[in-house]
Design goal:
The chain is an alpha/beta fold. It has 2 domains: 39 residues, no CATH class; 438 residues, Amidase signature (AS) domain (Amidase signature (AS) enzymes), CATH 3.90.1300.10. The chain has an 11-stranded mixed β-sheet with strand order 1-3-2-4-6-5-10-11-9-7-8, with helices on both faces. α8 packs across α10. The longest helix has 23 residues. It is globular, with a radius of gyration of 23 Å.
Length: 504
C-alpha cells in the first residue's frame, strides 16, 4: 500500500501541528476512524493515472557545452519533429525549461529539480508539433522562474546576447538569448511578473504576454494560477502572431481558461495605426530607477507611431505605481502555497496534475539550502505571512486589484493602446561571483515595476524593441484591452515596418 495508517506518535505530531490536544483514547479512536479513509487513498493509488499520450518520437538529448553553449542559454538540445505539414512547417522552436517535454530532462533552473524527466508533453508542445514545428530543446530559465535577472539558474548565469557579462533578463532568459542569436526561430517563455517581456526587453526581441488564459498552461510547472502566463518570443512581429495563433485556445484542462476569445492573429497585422489612439502612461516613465535614455528612446518610439498616423497623447493612471505592491501578496503567497508547500501544484482546482513532478519536487524540503536567494526570500516571506497573518492580505490584494484593472480599463475606454517602457532600465551587469545576497536580489527584481501590474490585471502586453543605447536594447511596451491582442500586433507591425529598430 502507498499510504499507511499513521502510528500513534505520527498522529500526535500531526495533532500538535494543528493545535489539537489528544488523549490516548482519542488517538485510538481516530486511528480506527482513519482506516476506511486510508483504504480509499489506496484505491486511488491502484488506478492507472489518466494522462495524455505522447505522440511524437524524441530522444533525451544532451547538455551542450563550450562554444556550443557560449551564453549558457541551452539546458538540453534534442530534436522533436512535428507533423509533415502545418502553420509552423520549417520553423524551429525552443522551450523554456519549465515546460514539460516528455522524456527530456527538465530542471526549471533549480538544483533541486535536476534529474526530473517529465512523462507528458505540455499542451503547447502538442500544438507546436501538430502545426509542423520542430522543437530543438530546452532553454535555461531562472531558479523556479523567480527572477527578472539572468543570474539565478543553478548552472550559472545566462549572458546577454549583445554584451557578455550583462543580464539577459528573466526568467525566460535562455529563450530570449537563443531567439536573439538566431539559434531558434521562436521560443516559448513564461510570464508571472514580466518574465516574457523583461528578457525580450533586455535582448531586443518581441515578447507577448497575452490575456490571462488565452494560451493553456497545462503541463507547465506553475508558480501561482492567477498570474501564470506562457507565450511567444520571436525576432519578428509576424512570427510572434503566428506562434500565438497556434498556441491559443482552450484545451479542456486548464482552469485559467474561461470565456476565451481567439483570433487569426497572423492575418490581422496589416492596416497600420492611422487614427489609432495611443495613451502614453506618465507613471510608466516615472519609476524611481528609470533611466533617462530608456525614457527618451520610448518617447521617440511613441513619436514614430504618431508620425505613422496614430493619435498619441499622455494619460495619467496613478494606480499603476501601486501595481508592484499589489502583486507582492498575490505572487509571494501564491507561489509559497502552490509551488513550494503545494509541491508544484497545490489543490482546489480542476487541472491536469503531473504527479511525477509533484513527487520529485517535494524533495526541496531536504535541500532548502540549495534554493536561490530569491526563492529563499519569497518562501520565507510567504510562510511567515501565512503563519502569523493568514491569507487576508492575499485576499485584500486581490480585491484591490479589481480597482487597478478598472483604472486601466477606464484609460482603455479612451485609448486603443497604452504605451510605456517595458523595463525602466537597460540590461545591467551580472552580479559578480559570491556577490552579497542584497545585490543578488536587487539585480533580480529591479526591472519588474512596469510589467508585473499586467500579470495581476491580465491585460495583454507586448515588449517591442525600439532602439539601442550603450550597446544594449531598449523596449517599448504596448498594452491592450482584454483579448485584443490583434490591435497590439497591428501597431507593433506598423512600427516594425517603419524602420530597423536597432538604428532608432
Amino acid at each position: 500500500m502507498a499510504v499507511q495508517l499513521p502510528t500513534p506518535s505520527q498522529l500526535l505530531d500531526i495533532a500538535d501541528d494543528i493545535g489539537l490536544d489528544l488523549t490516548d483514547a482519542d488517538v485510538t479512536s481516530f486511528l480506527g476512524l482513519l482506516g476506511p479513509n486510508i483504504a480509499a487513498y489506496n484505491v486511488v493509488d491502484s488506478m492507472a493515472d489518466n494522462l495524455p499520450a505522447v505522440r511524437y518520437p524524441r530522444t533525451p538529448g544532451y547538455r551542450p557545452t563550450g562554444d556550443e553553449n557560449a551564453y549558457n542559454a541551452w539546458y538540453v538540445k534534442t530534436t522533436v519533429h512535428g507533423a509533415a505539414e502545418g502553420k509552423l512547417k520549417g520553423k524551429t522552436i525552443v522551450l523554456k525549461d519549465n515546460i514539460m517535454l516528455a522524456g527530456v530532462p527538465m530542471m526549471n533552473g533549480a538544483a533541486t529539480m535536476e534529474g526530473y524527466i517529465p512523462d507528458i508533453d505540455a499542451t503547447v508542445v502538442h500544438r507546436i508539433l501538430d502545426a509542423g514545428g520542430k522543437i530543438l530543446g530546452k532553454a535555461h530559465c531562472e531558479y523556479f522562474c523567480l527572477s527578472g535577472g539572468s543570474h539565478t539558474n543553478a548552472t550559472g548565469p545566462v549572458h546577454n546576447p549583445h554584451k557578455r557579462g550583462y543580464s539577459a533578463g528573466g526568467s525566460s532568459s535562455g529563450s530570449a538569448v537563443l531567439v536573439a542569436r538566431g539559434e531558434a526561430d521562436m521560443a516559448l517563455g513564461g510570464d508571472q511578473g514580466g518574465s516574457i517581456r523583461m528578457p525580450a526587453s533586455f535582448c531586443g526581441i518581441y515578447g507577448m504576454k497575452a490575456t490571462h488564459g488565452l494560451v493553456p498552461y497545462t503541463g507547465i510547472m506553475p508558480i501561482e494560477i492567477y498570474i501564470d502566463h506562457t507565450g511567444p518570443m520571436t525576432r519578428t512581429v509576424a512570427e510572434n502572431a503566428l506562434l500565438l495563433e497556434v498556441l491559443a485556445g482552450p484545451d479542456g484542462y486548464d482552469p485559467r481558461q474561461y470565456d476565451v476569445k481567439v483570433h487569426p492573429y497572423a492575418s490581422m497585422l496589416e492596416g497600420g495605426v492611422a487614427g489609432m489612439k495611443i495613451g502614453i502612461v506618465i507613471e510608466g516613465f516615472a519609476q524611481p530607477n528609470a533611466e533617462a535614455d530608456v525614457n527618451a528612446k520610448v518617447r521617440a518610439a511613441a513619436a514614430q507611431l504618431k508620425k505613422l498616423g496614430a493619435v498619441v497623447s499622455e494619460v495619467s493612471i496613478p494606480m499603476h505605481l501601486l501595481g508592484p505592491a499589489l502583486w507582492t501578496p498575490i505572487g509571494v503567497e501564491g507561489l509559497t502555497q502552490t509551488m513550494m508547500h503545494g509541491d508544484g501544484y497545490g489543490v482546489s482546482r480542476p487541472d491536469l496534475y503531473v504527479t511525477s513532478l509533484m513527487d520529485f519536487h517535494r524533495n526541496w524540503r531536504g535541500r532548502a539550502n540549495e534554493l536561490s536567494e530569491t526563492t529563499k526570500l519569497f518562501t520565507l516571506l510567504g510562510t511567515y505571512i501565512r503563519k502569523y497573518h493568514g491569507s487576508r492580505y492575499y485576499g485584500k490584494a486581490m480585491n484591490v486589484t479589481r480597482l487597478l484593472t478598472a483604472a486601466y480599463d477606464h484609460a482603455l475606454a479612451q485609448y486603443d493602446l497604452l504605451l510605456m517602457p517595458t523595463t525602466p532600465i537597460k540590461a545591467h551587469e551580472l552580479p559578480p561571483p559570491n556577490a552579497p545576497r542584497e545585490l543578488v536580489v536587487e539585480r533580480a527584481l529591479n526591472m519588474i515595476s512596469n510589467t508585473a501590474p499586467f500579470d495581476i490585471t491580465h491585460h495583454p502586453a507586448m515588449a517591442i524593441p525600439c532602439g539601442m543605447s550603450d550597446g544594449l536594447p531598449v523596449s517599448m511596451m504596448l498594452v491592450g484591452k482584454h483579448w485584443d491582442e490583434p490591435t497590439i500586433y497591428r501597431a507593433a507591425y506598423a512600427f516594425e515596418q517603419a524602420g530597423e529598430w536597432a538604428m532608432m
